[in-house]
Task: structure prediction
Amino acid sequence: MTFHVMIIPTLNCPSNCKYCWGSENKKEMMDIEVIDQILDWLGDFRDDKVHFTFHGGEPLLAGYDFYKEALEKLSKLPNFEGFSLQSNIWLLTEEMIDLFVKYNVVVSTSIDGPKEINDYQRGEGYFDKTMSKYELAKSKGLIINFVLTVTDYSKDFSDELYEFFKGEKMNLKIHAALPSLRGDNADPWALDQEEHGKLLVEWLDKYLYDLDKFTIMDLDHICKSALRRRGTLCTFADCIGTTLAVGSDGSIYPCYRFVGMPEYV
Ligand code: SF4
Result:
């Protein structure tokens, strides 16, 4: 089994998506020493393969020098398996792209569908900033996957969302917007579970005819899970014990969603 370690260099983010409760305007930033502490901790913690995922807030705020050192150090762990990174990619530079290609970092970014729908939820200018960096990454050979967050607002544009990702041949994961764990700004955007299920069923009916055009990872994972009799994505499995998250000060949490909440350290 793979052990997932999520590294959250900061909860800060230059974006201000309306349904986000996972970012904070604090300037705390992970020091590279925390990476050394992670390596000490994992040295004799368990024998499983280890996959590292950088998440935030916006993880690219940590900068090129942090990643150059962190990727080199972490990739030397004897049971190292691979890297992923989740980002809005606004701060992606050419030298970062080259670094991520070198270490086979699987990068995911978030787009909530066509520009009008995306920018209504995620803020004016978001779509253009992310898509221009996507084109740059693609031109330099860095593969980018997408996360589509469906909200109580965008669920009514289910067909437009589907056609957008299919038309652009963009591989995606679907996230349902969740109620807040901090504050209450996200609550009106949260997607009801029934509506989430309805969208997955509608999309599966269409996807069966479009399997050669793009990838909807959730539907693929649900099919795999049915055959393996076990969830293959943390949202469809009992993930306790297979994932831990490390915050900017080195505190360890059960999942990135709880980072910055002292009661979960
Ligand atoms: S880009 Fe991500 S972390 Fe930043 S505000 Fe939007 S949802 Fe939150």
